[in-house]
Design goal:
Length: 149
């Protein structure tokens, strides 16, 4: 539900749902879901409180590295990249790309193009930003995620 709220542009509700889910996970000992929940929470927090999003991303990165949860790891690297200046963001995005390609999680790859677009926008290279975002849009459409595009 937290992801749905984030995509619907309701980050505060997404954060509330993610925190409720965290309580359920802890209450029932469902630790395997913690990395994905942390990634979802970090993504929602990014829209409201980038500093808190960075903290959540750091915590989830550590957990994901320990548990081998590569999807959550890559997602949190991208959240962390969004909280940094372009020079510090690029290596985080590249690490996420390598992880996703290595794990063959191709459905996440348009997010890499989106992150590169944000980096280009941060460098005031609007032509490159548009090109990256157009690449991401085409990739989302190619996989059938037209609503996301």
């Amino acid at each position: 539900m937290a992801q749905v709220r984030t995509l619907a542009g309701e980050p505060r509700l997404a954060i509330e749902h993610a925190r409720q889910a965290a309580g359920t996970i802890l209450a029932y000992g469902l630790d395997g879901f913690r990395p994905e929940l942390g990634a979802t929470l970090a993504g929602a927090e990014l829209l409201v409180d980038p500093a808190r999003a960075a903290e959540t991303a750091h915590e989830t990165i550590e957990l994901s590295r320990r548990t081998g949860h590569v999807g959550a790891l890559a997602s949190c690297l991208l959240v962390l990249a969004a909280t940094h200046d372009p020079a510090r963001a690029r290596p985080l995005v590249e690490e996420a790309r390598q992880i996703l390609e290595g794990a063959r999680l191709h459905a996440y790859l348009p997010r890499i193009a989106e992150a590169h677009g944000a980096i280009a926008r941060g460098r005031h290279d609007l032509a490159a930003a548009r090109a990256y975002l157009e690449d991401a849009r085409r990739a989302w459409i190619a996989m059938g995620a037209t609503g996301h595009a």
